[in-house]
Amino acid sequence: MVTGLGATTPLGGTAPATWQAMLEGRNGIRAIERDWMVELPIRIAGQLAVEPSEALDRVEARRLDRSEQLALIAAREAWADAGRPEVDGERLAVVIGTGTGGAVTMLDQDDVLERSGVRKVSPHTVPMLMANGPAAWVSIDLGAKAGAHTPVSACASGAEAVALGLDLIRLGRADVVIAGGTEACLHPLPLAGFAQARAHSLRNHDPEHASRPFDLDRDGFVIGEGAAVLVLERASLRPGRHSYATLAGAAVTSDAHHITAGHPDGQTRAVRRALAEAGVTPERIGMVHAHATSTPKGDLTEAETLARVFGPHRPAVTATKSMTGHLFGAAGALAALATAYSLHDQLVPPIRNLTAPDPAADLDLVTATARTVHAEAALTNAFGFGGHNASLVFTES
Fold it and tell me: Which residues form the Ketosynthase family 3 (KS3) domain (predicted)?
C-alpha cells in the first residue's frame, strides 16, 4: 500500500501543492537567473518553487548537497503523511534513486580547489557528492536499518527505486519502505552537454511553453530539479490504514540497444511484465502517466510502446513533464506519486502546451483540463539513457 507521499518540485514545496498545480495545468519552468547562465545556449529550467532553506535549519542545510536536501524534505513529508508508522528500524528500508547524485558539489568543490587550494575545500565534500548520500541521510534521519539503497539508472532511477521497494516487501526483507528519487543538477556543465547533444529545448524566449510532450512543435526536454518519495507498507502491518493506492506490480528491463536512444522492444517488455506481475490485463488500465520528455524521437518511441501493449484499448494518457520539466533521477518517482494521486482522486492531469498533437502518437492524450476517470488500475513509465526501463502498475486500494 502507498500510505504516504512527499515532494518538493518546480510546482510546489509539498506533495499536495504539486498535485493541485498539476491538476490546474500550471507552469513550473522559468528563466534561470544566475550569473553563469549568460553565455549558455540553455537558459531555462524547472526550478524549485520553494527553496530547501525554508524547510531545513541552516546547519543541516550546510552539510548536505542540494540533492540530499530535497530527498530529506520529501521523505520527512511522506513519513508524516503516512502517520509515522510504528515499525522496528530493522524492518524499515530506504531506496532513493538519483541520476547524478552530488555532481554539483563535486564540480563546485573542484572549482574551489583550482581557485583557492586544498585548505578551502569543504570537509563535507565526500559525503555531499556520494550518489548514495540521499538514501543514507534519509536512513539516518528516520532510523531505517533494513538497508539504504541507491538505484542509479539515469531517468529511470526514481521508478526503479519504487520497484525495488516493492521487491523488499515481497521478499520479506522489510515491512515499510521509503522509496523515491531526487535530482538537483542545474549547473553549466550538464546544461552545456545537453545543448551540445541537441536534446534540450532552446525556447529561452518562451520558457512557459518550452516543454510540450507529444506536440508537433516539441524541440526537446527541459531540465528540472526536485524530489518525490512514497511510503510503501505491507498491507497487513496496519489493517484499515488509509492508502492512496496499491503498488500491484513492477518491472525493470534494459534495451541493450543504444546509450541514449530508447527502443520499443525493451519498453514493451517492461510494461507487459509489470502488468503480468500485477495480474492486470491491459484493458483494466484506465490511465497512463507517460515518461514523455518532449523530445521528437523519444515521445514517439513511447507512443509505439503503448500502441503495442494496449492495441485498440485507449487509456487516458498524461505527461506532467510539460509542467515540471524533466527531473531525471526523480522523474519516475514523481510520476509514481502523481499516479497514486490519480487513482485516489480519479483525476488525470492535463498535458500542458499540447496544442497540436503529433498524429504519429495515436493516443488518448489529456489536454487543456484535468479529466475525471473511472479507473481501477494505472500505469506509469520511466525510461533512461543507457536503455533503462521501469514500469509500475498501481491499483485502487
Answer: 1-396
Q: Which amino acid is at 97?
A: G
Structural domain for 73, as ranges: 2-395
| Rg for the chain, CA atoms, rounded | 20
CA distance 215 to 172: 44
pTM of the model: 0.97
CATH number for the domain spanning 187: value is: 3.40.47.10
**Residues with active-site annotation:** 155, 291, 326
Count of domains for the chain: 1
Handedness of CA 121, 126, 128, 129 (dihedral sign): positive
CA dist 379 and 375 (Å) reads 11
**Interatomic CA distance for residues 332 and 290, integer angstroms:** 10
Averaged over successive runs of 10 residues, the pLDDT of the chain (397 residues) comes to 98 98 98 81 95 91 95 98 96 98 94 96 95 98 98 98 98 98 94 91 96 97 98 90 96 95 96 98 98 97 98 97 98 98 98 97 97 98 96 96
